[in-house]
Fold each of these.
Amino acid sequence: MDHTSRYDLDRDALGSVVEELAPGSPRYRAAQVWDGLHRRLLEPDELTELPRPLRAALRGHPAMAPALELDREWETDGGRTRKWVWRLADGKRIESVLMHYDASANHQARSTVCVSTQAGCAMACGFCATGQAGFERHLRVGEIVEQVTRAARSAAADGRRLSRVVFMGMGEPLANYDATLAAAHRMRDDLGLSARHLTISTVGLVPGIHRLADEGLPINLALSLHAANDAKRDDLVPINRRYPVAALADACRRYVERTGRRLSIEWALIEGVNDGIDDVRDLAAFAKPLGAHVNLIPLNPTPGYAVRGTAPARVQSFHDELRTAGVNATVRQTRGREIDAACGQLAAGQVGAPVRLRPRP
Ligand code: SAH
């Protein structure tokens, strides 16, 4: 069965749908539908400028079906963090997380959505709930883009404007390269998001990093490093056995040179595993020549991994030691732990029973 959805259509395909439903329509009709879906984030039903019969026909046309059906919604931080579990047309489940940040001395208010690129993940990082659940399938372009349009609508209803997208939800974006890139293009070209406000996070698929470097898109790259020597990283991030640390450093260097974007490095601090003085040294040796910014994330709990996150005092001293070694670093305050919405916790209910979850009233 064909499970394409409305955002899988390009302009030409949408034009054909309009022509099929209302032969001889003026050309601006297709443009109205396109803008309605992308710029105004409306449902076909809400496009009141269209003739009523066309609107009704669009509503019933399979190619115009939404990709995502709301399964469950969770909220925390007084509504500033919201997680959705979506059901796809084939019954698979994925998650996205919307985060609102209030204005501060350094930042304007902004809203970011974290989107999934695969149902499940094949990378098998033991500390990550998505990795524990295993791989189901790649997402289509329409399934990725619609996570953004739904989040943008939700943000607008909160009086906020969605301005950033991070490809840090379920799955490995560079393993689903074509759909991820097409979705990024759609976000920039049609949803009006700047490429500089898009971030693709990768476990370190070296060929994908090289390919992305050649796209001519100033998109941000985040690398989930977690260990910076091969013996340790082979263990924590199994794909390292194929793409070892030196090759990864080369690919990142080339990415930074070609795009002019700063690299960020994610480092989940795991007690007694990657939070020692040796780890500071290895990480600094990797990050410093690249001018990378390191995000330190105390490990979030997941059902399939017994080791704990580093205690706050050691997080602080690790941070200090890293800065003394000349590396820019930030301790990330984690969002949405209590609704299993934080980094590495997205499993769409596949792993364990999410007993801490409480639905919205
Ligand atoms: N597959 C891509 C996209 C996922 S991003 C990638 O790995 O980059 C999700 C981020 O959360 C990654 O940096 C991942 O390593 C991190 N992560 C996974 N499990 C975590 C956990 N339990 N606590 C904190 N961060 C975790």
Note: Residues 123, 125, 127-128, 168, 172, 201-203, 224, 266, 268, 297, 299-300, 302, 343-344 surround S-adenosyl-L-homocysteine (CB under 6 Å).
Amino acid sequence: MRVLLVEDDGMIAQGLQTALRQSGFAVDWTSDGRSASGALHATVFDLVLLDLGLPQQDGIEVLRGLRRRGDATPVIILTARDEIRSRIAGLDAGADDYIVKPFDLDELMARVRSVLRRASGRADTSIQHGALRLDPVTHTVEQAGVPVNVSAHEYAVLEALLQRPGAVLSRSQLEDRLYGWDEPIGSNAVEVYIHGLRRKLGSDVIRTLRGVGYFVPKT
Ligand code: CA
């Protein structure tokens, strides 16, 4: 899943990016309102974490613009303790939740999971494919009911493939799902994650179409 983080405080942004990436999200970070609006026009995100006090265009304006276009991407606003008015304005403008700075990272991640669960509109958001079951909220994998320990990047690769069984995804399409704008891409990273998944789940779960990419066969 891809998250847009809009935060002009570099320290907070750094901590959030680390926490989100450790949980398996691809994170794009922008530090002003105008480039946030631009990014939201250009890219589909699964979630936006939006600071309110921002240079160029404030967070409320970014949010209003998003909702005016009928874009229902879940938004959690990040507010300071003394910004009660703007917190209310944020909720009125269509935010799904808010968290008050300074916040606890575990609490933020719990809110992220709860907003994503609600946004999916179902109590059970898991992806079932044969014996495999993925939970996109907790990023856990089970095979025949047995938990399988996969890394955040392995999870992201598997989720991308399982969202469209039978569809072949190229290496660069998979890289898009793995990395934010400013993350370095290892030259053979995708192959490494595929190898790891085959080792853990069995060699025939993910197939290679030579010269094209990877796919999970339809059940
Ligand atoms: Ca700020």
Note: The pocket of calcium ion is lined by residues 8-9, 51, 53-54 (CB under 6 Å).
